[in-house]
Design brief:
- This protein is mainly beta.
- The chain is built from one helix and ten strands.
- An eight-stranded antiparallel barrel has the order 1-2-3-6-7-8-9-10. Strands 4-5 form a two-stranded antiparallel ribbon.
């Protein structure tokens, strides 16, 4: 019976640790221009834009005008899923990788990883090819 209790305690500790180091939640950019919701779906992390400081252009909601797919160029930016398919990194706690980040400003998608610095700060890096050829941003948790 002690063995089962030990297994349950280990499982509970792993679960609590995973929740404490989770990027799931709402984040804002360095310049506070947008908020994003990071969520889990099918064991992978995704992110969608939920707030823009300036949501309209010429009185109309901003759309994904630069999308390479013409059928998506009228899709609103608010609600746009721009982070896709992030999985936990093997052997590196608080890191998710093998995902993509889409930049609606230029219509391009980049390889990406997410790294929690602490429970309220995350570094997001987008790159082409290798991570040395890229750009990082630090986001802050809103809730």
């Amino acid at each position: 019976m002690n063995r089962w209790v030990s297994l349950v305690l280990v499982w509970m500790a792993v679960g609590v640790s995973a929740l404490a180091g989770s990027p799931i939640g709402v984040w804002t950019t360095e310049n506070k221009e947008a908020n994003f919701e990071i969520y889990e779906n099918g064991g992978k992390l995704f992110g969608r834009i939920i707030y823009l400081k300036e949501p309209n252009y010429d009185g109309k909601p901003k759309v994904d005008y630069n999308n390479p797919d013409p059928s998506k160029r009228r899709d609103p930016i608010i609600g746009l899923v721009f982070l896709k398919d992030f999985v936990p990194a093997n052997g590196t706690p608080d890191r998710w990788e093998k995902g993509t980040i889409y930049d609606p400003h230029n219509g391009k998608a980049y390889s990406s990883f997410l790294q929690l610095k602490d429970e309220n700060t995350i570094t997001v890096r987008g790159f082409i090819g290798i991570s040395l050829l890229g750009r990082s941003q630090v986001w802050t948790r809103v809730k």
